[in-house]
Records
---
Amino acid sequence: MNFKSLAIVFVLLLAIVIVLKIYESKKGDRSFRKELVNFDKTQATAITIIPKAGKEQIKLTKKADNWKVSSKGKSFNADKTMVDNMLEELLKLKPKRVAATTKDKWKEFEVIDSVGTRVLVNQDKKALADIYIGKFSYKQPKNQYQRQGTMISYVRLNNDKIVYAVDGFLSMTYNRDINSYRNKYLVKTKKQDINKLSFIYPDSSFTMLKQNNKWMIDGLLADSATVAKYLSSIAVTSNQNFVDDIDVNTLGKEQYSLIIEGDNFVPFNIKLYNNLLDSVNNKLITSTYNNGTVFNGTKSDLVNKLFVGKSKFLK
């Protein structure tokens, strides 16, 4: 073959290679998603978490502006901030790579019902997201200059065969018990917004009021450092020692009460009840911030943290 013939063959082969590359590129673009889910999180009204076999199914339901978490016939107040973070985490999922493209690999990556966790997000009856969260892997830092290793989770959309690798440890968020999703707060505000506290005790009630940036107790100047320390300790008060299946209304009048008032929030009324019928849960605490939830006041020293005497604040 002469030079002209070789050149023609070379051009034809080059054209074929270019066409194949373009085809493969477009094919890859079609199969490799840039995002896994896309919805307006404010429209979500329900999240159903179907965990690995043997664990309890959990459902979060939005009612008005509040969320409830339920499982096995029991329903509790849910942590709205946690729910918002869960939805945000789904929306941030970005595929790093394709891990598998065939159904026979689903079990290996734990993206099927028996070994994976399925998460469904709905707006009433409309499905917004339906995704399986599977296997987790961790890679150590490659060198001493890399502070953290790489955390990878494997996921699959319910209507898709492809398994994707994404950043993060998703099982930590979506594979928990019901108490993890509950509202754990008795008080949640900013300490600088608090300007009045009313301690209502059987024989030693007192009121602490902020006037001209100074705290006063029944006309006496309170110790500013002690007050600041107390406000810092109670402004965000949470507890996980729930006491369920008990009606505090059957216990009679509360023993102590603490009313917290201020700017930018509805006043909180925290009450302490004596439960003489139970030696373990003998001190029960409720809060209007978290209506319907009862806490064990003895554990974590919750009683002594909230209900203090006048002498604590006076010099």
---
Amino acid sequence: MPKVDSAEVALTDLNPDVKIVKYQERVNSENVDRIFGAGWDAIVDGCDNFPTRYLVNDASLFHKIPVIHGSIFRFDGQVTTFMPHVGPCYRCLYPEPPPAHLAPSCAEAGVLGILPGIIGTLQATEAIKLILGQGDPLVGRLLTYDSLKMSFRVLKLRRDKTCPACGENPTITSYIDYEGFCAGVATHG
């Protein structure tokens, strides 16, 4: 069963009144404007690859949509909220993707099974806070979780004035070749 159908079944079992909008397609430069242009209050990002993370970042800036970012690796996770043109963006935190040999996939490196649920719950909390306008979202802060030490840390993040996507003079003004960029061969357009 496709993940979107499985998610629909699970969510409607929890709340039959919820409205589900499914996109059974991989987000890319050709469809991201259609998907992000649907009037969303926030994007909850659980992307599992760097090209998609950078695409989501750029699209969120172009559409002015906050992104609640979460990522996991082995026994660790992190969550932050990227608020376009208010706080730092994904490129401020990670200007360039790591070399492939330093960033194995979860399938290659393994991941603690409960970690997606913990990080996903934190992301859902951030989304609810944004939608309700309550609390203090993780804008400009990165929450890290170390499951082996059972500890959380909060790191301050700063917006990079020279960031090519959200800085004072952005050079990324349209979608780029994200696969090439993450392979180290693309140029900013």
